[in-house]
Design brief:
Blueprint lengths: L11 E5 L2 E4 L6 H8 L3 E4 L9 E6 L2 H17 L6 H5 L2 H7 L12 H5 L6 E5 L7 H11 L11
Parallel strand pairs: 2-4, 4-5
Antiparallel strand pairs: 1-2, 1-3
Length: about 150
């Protein structure tokens, strides 16, 4: 059994009207939570998949997974966090990860969380050169008439 933070109770999300932000861990969620924390806090179980427009942020799945596993291990064993990047890229650590499916929400694949509903989510990439995720977010919010103060991100 793989321990997960929310599992059956749903995963964290925030709603403003019919626009729903799903918090995909290890994908700039702390960064964006400052913007969306004033919205109504819900879980993924509260999403109406026929009426709601769900969006989130995504990054390279392997990079997200490696970072999530490392964060879990670092918090569990209280390693020096400044060593995290060195360990994530270590060949022995990469071999170890081949035997670890996932530990928590920071490493579980979004396909495991949403199954076929993953196709109904608008994914905004945060790590693709030439794509400005802040600009894309502003555009999406403007389509729904939502004004947000992005200056807090500075």
């Amino acid at each position: 059994m793989t321990p997960v933070q929310y599992g059956d109770t749903g995963w964290p999300a925030w709603r403003c009207g019919n626009l729903v932000y799903y918090r995909n861990y290890k994908c700039a969620t702390t960064f964006y939570l400052h913007i969306f924390k004033t919205w109504e806090e819900i879980t993924t179980h509260d999403i109406d998949w026929e009426k709601d427009h769900v969006f989130s942020y995504i990054r390279d799945p392997i990079e997200r997974y490696r970072s999530g596993i490392a964060e879990f291990l670092f918090s569990l064993f209280r390693f020096n966090i400044t060593l995290k990047d060195d360990i994530i890229n270590d060949s022995e650590f990469i071999k170890l990860m081949a035997h670890v499916p996932y530990f928590d929400g920071h490493s579980v694949p979004v396909s495991k969380i949403f199954n076929e509903k993953i196709q109904k989510i608008d994914w905004i990439p945060i790590d693709v050169e030439g794509i400005d995720h802040v600009k894309m977010t502003r555009y999406l919010l403007s389509k729904y008439g939502i004004e947000m103060d992005f200056s807090i991100l500075d």
